[in-house]
């Protein structure tokens, strides 16, 4: 076992602070990764604050990991020392249930192992995430990152990227479709970039008029201010697809009203109770509301390759680990452009 530096929260009210964790020795099928960058997902904040009521402390968050391979086990041929690689939200699954057989490890029927806050099969206790110097992961859960991408701006692809790419791909968004992305944060800005790259007519649906110019630069053809009833009325019954990234419970009725007949709104943000939905808002127009959770490993690799081909990365604000608590305060206020990424040199050199 190796002891390494990390940042952790001790309880739901605590600030993150320096903490030491252990990583296992590199096993036959393992890849040991030197973490260069780690994105800051709103899920990190939810779990630090125990919003989902399942946090185990101390929490070392971080599931948008980019780094270089430091060491590989004897059974690893796909990766070699020095390769640029990524790790997302998953580090293990049973690999034999029907979900795993369908390359949907995130829905593993025997319980996937999440990058942090999951039972650690090797060391006991629970897993620790990417706000740390290094991580050792089974080769099946390590992704190749196209070398043409800016490594730090590619970090958020590992969660924000796949979480938005997967529903757009699964629900078959195509050229010319009118696609709305609700919430311009980490997920939302990737949603707009992907929908635009797929040829859709994209609309950023936001509560923040101040983000309008940025939304257009990111690839939105139009901006819809969700608090403006007249604007919402103008767009009623017109969307082929909606991707809803709002991080908290909310009233979905005004958004359902935007869907065309037979269209779907996919919820990825609110992992918590939603306000009551009027049945009529789905019945009148045979509309659907669905959910989606990250994506499996195969699809995550496909998404990274798509990003390599289309040169899609995140718009990021780099921070040092010492500024993580300030970044969380800003994330809470929807004030991030559009993903914080931690430069892990700040942890190593301190
Ligand atoms: P984020 O960067 O904080 O962005 C969320 C955006 O939603 C905000 O910038 C804001 O955009 C909008 N918003 C915030 N509060 C709102 C409210 N009360 N009503 C309406 N809009 C509101 O968060 P993120 O990292 O993109 O994550 C979004 C959510 O997805 C989080 O809950 C996270 O845990 C979840 N998540 C889910 C998955 C999955 O697999 N399903 C994966 C990753 C993350 P505007 O200012 O434009 O309105
Ligand atoms: Zn995430």
UniProtKB/TrEMBL annotation:
One of its GO terms (molecular function) is alcohol dehydrogenase (NADP+) activity. The keyword Lipoprotein does not apply. Keywords: Metal-binding, Oxidoreductase, Zinc. Its cofactor is Zn(2+). Residues 9-342 form the Enoyl reductase (ER) domain. Gene3D superfamilies: Medium-chain alcohol dehydrogenases, catalytic domain, NAD(P)-binding Rossmann-like Domain. Signal peptide: none annotated. It holds the Pfam family ADH_zinc_N. Belongs to the zinc-containing alcohol dehydrogenase family. This is Putative zinc-type alcohol dehydrogenase-like protein. It comes from Maribacter spongiicola. The lineage of its organism: Bacteria, Pseudomonadati, Bacteroidota, Flavobacteriia, Flavobacteriales.
């Amino acid at each position: 076992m190796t002891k390494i530096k990390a940042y952790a929260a001790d309880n739901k009210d605590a600030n993150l602070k320096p903490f030491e964790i252990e990583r296992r020795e590199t096993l036959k099928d393992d890849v040991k990764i030197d973490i260069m960058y780690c994105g800051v997902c709103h899920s990190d904040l939810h779990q630090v604050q125990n919003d989902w009521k399942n946090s185990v402390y101390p929490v070392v968050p971080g599931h948008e990991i980019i780094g270089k391979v430091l060491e590989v086990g004897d059974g690893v041929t796909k990766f070699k020392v020095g390769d640029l690689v990524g790790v997302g939200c998953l580090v293990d699954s049973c690999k034999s249930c029907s979900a795993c057989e369908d390359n949907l490890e995130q829905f593993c029927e025997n319980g996937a192992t999440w990058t942090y806050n999951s039972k650690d099969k090797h060391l006991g206790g629970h897993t620790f995430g990417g706000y740390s110097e290094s991580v050792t992961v089974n080769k099946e859960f390590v992704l190749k990152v196209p070398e043409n991408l800016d490594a730090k701006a590619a970090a958020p692809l590992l969660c924000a990227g796949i979480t938005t790419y997967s529903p757009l791909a699964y629900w078959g968004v195509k050229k010319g479709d009118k696609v709305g992305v609700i919430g311009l944060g980490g997920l939302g800005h990737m949603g707009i970039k992907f929908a635009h790259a797929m040829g859709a007519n994209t609309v950023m649906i936001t509560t923040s008029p101040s983000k309008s110019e940025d939304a257009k630069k990111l690839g939105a053809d139009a901006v819809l201010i969700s608090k403006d009833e007249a604007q919402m009325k103008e767009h009623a019954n017109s969307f082929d697809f909606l991707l809803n990234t709002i991080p908290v419970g909310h009233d979905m009725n005004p958004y359902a009203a935007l869907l065309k007949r037979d269209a779907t709104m996919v919820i990825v943000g609110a992992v918590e109770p939603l306000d009551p939905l009027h049945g009529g808002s789905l019945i009148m127009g045979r509309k659907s509301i669905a959910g989606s959770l990250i994506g499996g490993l195969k699809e995550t690799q496909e998404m990274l390759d798509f990003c390599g081909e289309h040169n899609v990365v995140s718009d990021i604000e780099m921070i040092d680990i010492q500024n993580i608590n300030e970044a969380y305060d800003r994330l809470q206020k929807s004030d991030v452009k559009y993903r914080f990424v931690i430069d892990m040199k700040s942890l190593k050199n301190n």
